[in-house]
Amino acid sequence: MTFDAADAALVIGALALYLYDSAMLLYADEIVLTRGRRGWCVSSGSGYTLDRRFPVLGQPWAPWRPQFRERWDRTAVAEAPRDDAAFYSALRPLQWASALQFVWLFAALPAVLFLRAPIETLLVLAIAVYATSGAAVAFAVGQRDRLGLTKRALLTFATDVLACPPFAINAARKACLARGLQTEVQAFLASHLRPEERVQVARVIRTRLHGGGEAAAASQSEPGPQP
């Protein structure tokens, strides 16, 4: 019962792909909102830049949590009336799919490899992984309207989830990022964050936009939500 180099490379490779897919590079005027057990939290990224943008890795240990990437000052909303209750209800099966994929790849797979389980066990695990991915895509296709996904966004979602199991861990996040909040960002922050949190993030954003010089100016995003 031990890992050899090939086993370790497989697990580390899956982890690296998952973290790569989870990471985002934010423009100076962007934030990431994540809903947790105690409500919403906001991140403006790290204090350093990569390619003139700000890296953020949002809670990789809980990929099933809703997460949105938005411009700090965005005021435009979707033309169609949004239905948050329907969206979060439709999102729930994708959250379960994300949780299952996380368990398959980072609990079951290491255990199977470490215990030197029969090849049949590894095959069953592979079937479980791809069955979960397939079910997530099939569900997203059937619930596209409730999830607020365009045909293009759905195609991107399906490609990512089916082509790469570590990317499929982020199924719920991908749906959230593709849809966006579909509401005025400042109003959302006022409703869901404590005043001190809003003040802190506002200070960081304004410093980047007005005090960051050339890098901040170059990092400002184009109008519209960022998928």
TrEMBL record:
Sorted UniProt keywords: Membrane, Transmembrane, Transmembrane helix
Transmembrane spans: 6-28, 96-115, 121-142
Domain of life: Bacteria
Protein name listed in UniProt: Uncharacterized protein
